[in-house]
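User: Okay, second chain of the day. Same drill as before: sequence in, C-alpha cells out.
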Amino acid sequence: MANVTIWVGVLLEVLGIWMYVKTGSAHPTALIPTWFGIVLSITGVLAKSEDPKRRMLWMHIAVTVGLLGFLFPGGRGGIEVMMAHCKGVPLAHPEAVYEQFAMAGICLVFVGLCVRSFIVTRLARQVAAE
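Assistant: Same drill. C-alpha cells below.
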C-alpha cells in the first residue's frame, strides 16, 4: 500500500498544480490538493519500512489524511452545489467545485483501498496465529 499511497499523493499534487495553472495562477487555494498529495507521498515513503509497526503507523496516518481529503472537499463542494441549486443561480466558481469533487473522489478510492488492505492484513495475521 505504500506505493499506492505515493501514487495517490502524486495524483493529488498534479491535480492541484493543474487547476492552479488552469485558473490563471490567481487562486492559491487551488493548490490544496497538492499539499494533501505531498503529505500522502511523504507518508507513503515512510511506510516503506521493514518494521511492521512503523509501516502500520504511517499507513494509518495516510488513511487519516485521505479521509480528511474526502470529507472536507466533498462536503464543501456539496454545500456549494446545494446552495447554488436552492438559490437558482449558477455556481460562483465551478472549477473549484470540480476540483473539490475530484479530490474527494480520489481520496475516497484511496481510503477504500486502505481499509481493504487493513482487513486483508488483519485476516492474514489471524490465520497465521492459528
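Residues 2-129 form one domain.

User: Thanks, on to the next one.
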